[in-house]
Amino acid sequence: MDLYSIILVDDEEEVRKSIIKKIEWQAAGFRVVGDAENGEDAMEKIEILEPDVVLTDIRMPYMDGLALAEKVRQRYPSMKVVIFSGYDDFEYAQRAIKLNVTEYILKPVNVEELTSILKRIKGNLDQEIEEKRNLSRLRENYRKSLPIIREQFFNDLVHKNLPEELVEQKLREYGVPVMGARKWIIVAIDVEKGEVRETLSLHNEEELIPISVMQIVREKLEGYCRFALFQSVSEAEMVVIVALDDDNSTTGLIDVLGDICKETKRILEVPVSMGIGKSFRELTGFREAYQSSIDALGYKAIAGRGTTIYINDMEPVGVGKLEFDSVTEADLISAIKFGPDEKIEAAVSRIIEKMESAKVHYRQQQVYMFGVLNSVLQMMQQYDLALEDIMGGELKGMEIFDRTKKKEEFGQWLFKIAGKMNQFINQERDFTTRQVIQEAKQYIMDHYQNPDLSVEMICRHLHMSPAYFSTMFKKETGQAYIAYLTDIRLNKAVELLNKTDDKTYVVAAKVGYQEQNYFSYVFKKKFGVSPTKFRGAR
Fold this sequence. Notes:
Elements: E1 4-9, H1 13-22, H2 25-28, E2 30-36, H3 39-49, E3 53-57, H4 65-75, E4 80-85, H5 90-98, E5 103-106, H6 111-133, H7 135-159, H8 164-173, E6 183-191, H9 209-222, E7 226-231, E8 238-244, H10 250-268, E9 272-276, H11 286-297, H12 300-303, E10 308-310, H13 311-314, H14 326-338, H15 341-357, H16 362-382, H17 387-391, H18 407-447, H19 455-462, H20 466-477, H21 481-499, H22 504-510, H23 516-527, H24 531-537
Parallel strand pairs: 1-2, 1-3, 3-4, 4-5, 9-10
Antiparallel strand pairs: 6-8, 6-9, 7-8
């Protein structure tokens, strides 16, 4: 096990040096990565060093040990805090307990006692890590979480384009009994709660209705086919993946589903609508088939609620239809937004494959291509991309929509356009980040005089999370936020010391420091002399 990192915080340098020198840190399982002489200084170092343990005195200027412990608890909940104090005061101990401080030690610090405490903390840290890594515990947690993980997988299966190998692997891993079917069908189920008459006691507990419906669905399908039933996170209440083998058929399935609709109406007095999607024979077809089942549900106003609706009854079937559907469009948009080139190429290839497999009149092909173009143009408008940057001024390349051109040429053109859009969107994203950081810098410049200026205050202004802001700020500026703010304040202090005769405490207040002593401490730490001597040297 690697050594745990620790920083020591005490306003007396001799105390810090003495503790660092006397303790055999490595034998106790630790390495000292830094020390600080007050809470403010410690918070800066904690942000940079992220130690496992903070060992701090309770009485210090500018920010005491309890205030430091409170800030650490807010920002770094898993970090251990050990407080040592020369004050055997019950009130301090009470506050320390409320802050969930790991240990509370009285001064003078005894080497044997502190070493024993450090070893105990190391043991606790070891145990925490071991528990998180423990395979049997992980397996048990996995087993308990399996129903939730399965549900998440099912929802990903019908909403994302998962690789065939991954689909097959997960279906086997989760014991889903649908592998090796002749073909599959997806059924989207909606419970029409708005039409419930509330005549049964069940109707008063709305959350129980879907569970009752699922029970009837399971009972009816178990005698007919292999299936997987799960609750959907969107669009439909629940979804069934049906595996059809040689001994059952789509027609038979529709009959069983129709019986379920009648049964739920008769027993539960709840109307249930079922959208039956197109069948598919490859494990990559789940998403498109699911979308067709949702499309089938969309015909409820025509077919009637509380019935089965088969998509093939509502829409024309066969190779004579070529449509730039929402699934294909979402694939293309996602590839353009996030890349990389391989994903863009795959999305374009799927578009061309659809054109190749559809035996349609060239006019349908043109309409399909213009549908793709329309999606591209809408995306350009959304990201405010210049037409000349993407397509070379005017709509050059429009000749590829001519019927005499090959589909491969359209694919090459689309891949080129999509690649350019991805490049410009990435540049725009980077530019936007730089703009946000620039706005943050300006906000700091406008508010550095406020002693309460914090990351949280800036993030409320920018509508960003503190964690993301801190990462991006350091990446763009090369400095942590606190270090950047300190530099701004001290540089402004230098200007005031050079150009005005203001007292030191006035200068401190003007640059955001409430305490003159702490201002002097920070100033001397950066410039090597106190503000008074700095002005005298001028």
